[in-house]
Task: structure prediction
Amino acid sequence: MPTAFPHDSVGLVTPQVLHFAEPLALASGRSLADYQLVYETYGQLNAARSNAVLICHALSGHHHAAGYHSADERKPGWWDSYIGPGKPIDTNKFFVVSLNNLGGCNGSTGPSSINPATGKPFGADFPVLTVEDWVHSQARLADALGIEQWAAVIGGSLGGMQAMQWTISYPERVRHCVAIASAPKLSAQNIAFNEVARQAILTDPQFHGGHFQEQGEIPKRGLMLARMVGHITYLSDDAMGEKFGRGLKSDKLNYDFHSVEFQVESYLRYQGEEFSTRFDANTYLLMTKALDYYDPAAAHHGDLAKTLAGVKADFCVISFTTDWRFSPARSREIVDALTAARKNVCYLEIDAPQGHDAFLMPIARYQQGFSSYMQRIKV
Amino acid sequence: MPTAFPHDSVGLVTPQVLHFAEPLALASGRSLADYQLVYETYGQLNAARSNAVLICHALSGHHHAAGYHSADERKPGWWDSYIGPGKPIDTNKFFVVSLNNLGGCNGSTGPSSINPATGKPFGADFPVLTVEDWVHSQARLADALGIEQWAAVIGGSLGGMQAMQWTISYPERVRHCVAIASAPKLSAQNIAFNEVARQAILTDPQFHGGHFQEQGEIPKRGLMLARMVGHITYLSDDAMGEKFGRGLKSDKLNYDFHSVEFQVESYLRYQGEEFSTRFDANTYLLMTKALDYYDPAAAHHGDLAKTLAGVKADFCVISFTTDWRFSPARSREIVDALTAARKNVCYLEIDAPQGHDAFLMPIARYQQGFSSYMQRIKV
Result:
């Protein structure tokens, strides 16, 4: 039976799993005895092993970035607009690796995995991870795949932080870094939003101190609220206005607290509820903590240029005008530090109404600029 | 024993209560059989009864706007910087009335009052109110105080909406309207933040469908989360950055989910917890609904200028540059509509870093501009 995937799709993909038996020391002082990572690859690794690209995912992302897991999967991977034959991350040229981060809930070892020490799910006992920890775990994945050096490490949002950290932790192993809709650290407001999301989860009676799996429960309300707050920060005020305005669900107002009056309310509730059924609460906490903690310049008293002094990679930094989660000003901090450190950096500020979510969307000038940068990479 | 209040304070004030025995018909189609309003007054009503000013409060406000309830009250009323002898709302000139809105939780009839029909607290059975309902209830307060026409109706945020609605509902009864940090209606993003706050309260198991008082419980977690979200929107990103930056609570990171790592987290948790002990959850829901529903232009197919065509009051509209809850652009919508309707309007955009909260704060240019407008009012 023929399957009809779009001509510019990577087509059918099968996730793979690698097990790492050597303990991984973590920033917190703790360590993981062993772990597994689930990942997908698109395109072919060339003989020189010089065309590999790593995709780092954002807060709620995973390894399934492009293509389809089956012929009847309704939607392709989360970054399918950007990965595929002829797309900015061109799989005719590049061998693309996309993983689910350690601590995730899509197949890599994380809080919902079984803790070998207890035979029960880790839950809240899973160690808190940092962006640096992720990069180290990803370096082992590169080793296992025989990739000495990435042609590029690429990510949006929290993924951009990982891409940047690669150039700091492993300067010899990255030729290009593409950091999209990202920031060199969170602002107080960013941390504040994360804290609201965390408190929503932590105070949900069904969170059970992080051991809800053992109780056969899910902190659904907490996750729903966390996602609702998140969603507001992913969209621009204008994008929300254009999408929903003050559109009413029905002709007349209900004048009660439970009815959905405005379309934006039902959108948020739907997003929140859907998310709460598929995402792990401990992973959500862990991801927000990794965001909060990330501050590579702290090692040099806040001087990001000094932190980036040893970087060997060229950079492409991309931001979006209406992104208020990580505004263009935050991307410019990275650009300015790179410039001060005399590194090669290309900066693209895209006029787009979609807010932070723009990094996931097909936007002509973004696609062109991103493509153009990727095409110039020598493999 | 002498009490030493500041020389520009209205000094000791005593809240008063008025009972209204006539039923109040509401926008929802329901009605309140009777109700009481608690209010304070500052200054003296002149013989012509032409110097009365009404203060309308915002989401979590109340009647205690200026002065002190006792000699040992630590902080004066919430708008003490703007009300008093020699201050912008000069009590040497004006007779100032400040009330707790119907549906409130500071002494006026609201969800925590006893429902005469059942002998139990109203709780969730208290009717949902609109800005228009409040204005009608305030008009009865004016009647009872013998005030035929307000020299000015003044409010910030949700209070500004009430001030504007006064000029629409009772054009003959308002000479001046001062609408500060306000908007002619909520945006989709504004509604979205309200919806998160409501869901936090509604999904708290201790909310008990709004009848938590009968259960002897409080939806503390829900109120805490609602207030935390609110607080983020009251402060500008810059103000938060300046106040907290990425300041740590202790020298080293804890790498867990429960510890407070950053100062902004402890600030938010404190604000949330403090609020949850003093504010009624049903009132909070009610206030956010009143905000969502307010849209005076809807009666004229979105044409605010037409809605304001019958207005007789002069307007002073004030906004703050870093306010992102109700940005200057939202105030300018009011100004533009007034201009299109050929009304007398003065607009003041204040350069202030504090965000939405700026309307409560002593800021020199704001004080001067506000003072100057108030001084020109003839009484």
